[in-house]
Amino acid sequence: MISCDYVRHMARYNRWMNDKLYAVAGTLPQTALDEARGAFFGSISGTLNHLLVADTIWLKRLAAHPAGFASLAPLQELAMPARLDLPLADGFAALQARRRQLDALIVQWSLELTPAALAQALDYHNTRGEAQNRPLPEVLVHLFNHQTHHRGQLTTLLSQIGLDVGVTDLIAMPAA
């Protein structure tokens, strides 16, 4: 389905796009970031936070994968979020710092991923506590697709207030 190279490419794309979004969002005052805008998670900061929550959940699940990814060990100190809208940081600077931390972990983890690990399924519990077993490639496509989905919402919210994130196409990402 997917390869380790695909995962590495998507990890770099994820970091590139998050850097672009935070650079533009960072030009706004906190009140504008927190303003209710009718998005799934209410505001720009709510949506940025939700991406942190979801990525934390998935990375903590990946940390329990049988491959034992050493790069994900720093996640042990983070609590598993209990809700998809649980505030993980107070203010934009703290959100951005946490985003950079997670993006660095995702890139580092992607470099550690092997074809053998990619072939192993992931056992985890969903947010309702139900046991799940999914092929790891399916989980990873979901992880990156989920990020892209909500970043699309963020680019729309920013565009509606006159801010342009610029080109967001994967094909436009600068070479590593």
Folded structure, characterized:
By secondary structure, the chain is mainly alpha-helical. Helices cover 55% and strands 6% of the residues. The chain contains 6 helices and 2 strands; from the N terminus they run αααααββα. It has a two-stranded antiparallel sheet. Strand 1 and strand 2 form a beta hairpin. Helix 1 (4-25) packs parallel to helix 6 and helix 3 (44-63) runs antiparallel to helix 6 (136-160).
The helix content, as a percent range, equals: 55-70%
- From the spread of the alpha carbons, the general shape counts as globular
What does the largest sheet look like? Answer: 2 strands, antiparallel
Kindly report the average pLDDT value.
Answer: 96
Which regions are unreliable across 5 or more consecutive residues at pLDDT < 50? none
Overall SS class: mainly alpha
Radius of gyration: 16 Å
Beta-strand fraction estimate: 5-15%
Q: How many helical stretches?
A: 6
Oligomer: single chain
Spatial strand sequence of the major β-sheet: 1-2
How far apart the termini lie comes to 24 Å
- Give the beta-strand count: 2
Helix/strand order: HHHHHEEH
Compact overview of the structure:
The chain is mainly alpha-helical and about 180 residues long.
In terms of topology, how is this protein built?
Elements lengths: L3 H22 L4 H5 L9 H20 L28 H21 L2 H4 L2 E5 L5 E5 H25 L16
Antiparallel strand pairs: 1-2
Helix pairs in contact: 1-4, 1-6, 3-4, 3-6
